[in-house]
Amino acid sequence: MRTSPRAIYSLDYLRAITRKNPGPRHEAEPKNSALGYVRPGRSYRPGSRRNAPIRVSRVSVAPYDRLGRGYSRVRQPDPRIAAQIEAALGSARTVLNVGAGTGSYEPGGREVTAVEPSAEMIGQRPPESAPVVQASAEELPFADRSFDASLAVLTVHHWANLAAGLAEMRRVSRERIVIVTFDPEALAELWIASDYFPEILSLKRRSEATSSELAGLLAGATIEPIPVPRECTDLFFAALWGRPEKLFDAEVVRPMWVWQSISEEARRGGRERLRADLESGAWERRYGHLRALPSLDVGLRLVSVPCAQPESEG
Predict the structure, then answer these.
(1) pLDDT in tens, 287-310
(2) Rounded to whole angstroms, how far apart are CA atoms 217 and 212?
(3) How far apart are CA 241 and CA 227, in angstroms?
């Protein structure tokens, strides 16, 4: 596993942004003179493991430690989706990317800090990507209002405690929170789920991270659709809406958490039906028109939330 030399913070930077008073939940954790508090059982010694990410808070079990092999090869950021995210971030100069994975959609021209729980995903981050702290969304190791904006792209459905993670994003953000998520109801009309893999829709409906649910937890949120291009370079499952053949590509489907979360029987049965329909021409007769569309609304949503400014004293 390769980890970028830039995946580690300078000690001066961590001194400045690591939470100074982490509170009772850290009382049992060992102190480190440079970092304040570190993960139980792990300490950081200056000059040691320089290619490893700093771990400064408890890390929940990361699903992509198991699923993430080969993720960066098939999940390349799509520039059209990236442009919409960039626009939502506005004038933010400093950005915290929560659940950052391999670094997709980290905005250029800004000072980005990444948080990612999975060592597997951290190991796939390219050398030029932002520095990363191995930590969980529910316990961000930064002082209040440390960043202009915080960003979370296709990650909130993995969080152990959605409300806690959102509260942490709000706590560390001065100006704005930007989240990209999925609304499952749009998937109900997409052939992938409706005709071949209905278990995916059931799984998405249980995720409790739709745009409306996020808006209910984040006052002042606005929601906008993100159209997914037909030739989207980011090969998440719904991005294959006009390319059914890719569902037979093991490299493409292996890192998909929805694919790995449904049963082997469901995967095999859906593929058999899809293969038969492609060979008979039934898929083309029903859905061939999709191949001519430039983009489609498959339920991808952008949630943007302004952060209230604290009242002035006096």
Answers:
(1) 999 999 999 999 999 999 999 765
(2) 9
(3) 12
H-only helix segments in 94-197: 119-122, 162-172, 184-187, 191
Asked whether the beta carbons of 114 and 135 are under 8 A apart, the reply is no
Neighbours of 239 (CB within 10 A): 23
- List pLDDT tens digits, range 190-200: 999 999 999 98
- How far apart CA 169 and CA 256 sit, in angstroms, is 25
Q: Which are the contacts of 233, defined by CB distance < 8 A and separation ≥ 6?
A: 76, 77, 78, 79
* Sign of the torsion angle spanned by Cα atoms 125, 228, 246, 68: positive
Contact 1, 119 (CB under 8 A): yes
Residue 110 — φ and ψ, nearest 5°?
A: -135, 165
The three-state secondary structure class of 93 is coil
223 burial (CB, 10 Å; 0-12 / 13-18 / 19+) is: middle
Domains and CATH numbers, the chain: 5-306 (3.40.50.150)
Residue listed under structure tokens 């030399």: 5
Q: Of all helices (H) and strands (E), which one includes residue 98? A: strand 94-98
pTM for this one? 0.78
Cβ count near 263 (within 10 Å): 9
Q: How far is CA 237 from the centre of its chain?
A: 14
Phi and psi at residue 282, to the nearest 5°: -65, -40
What are the tokens at 285? Answer: 């007769």
Q: Which residue has the tokens 């459905």?
A: 157
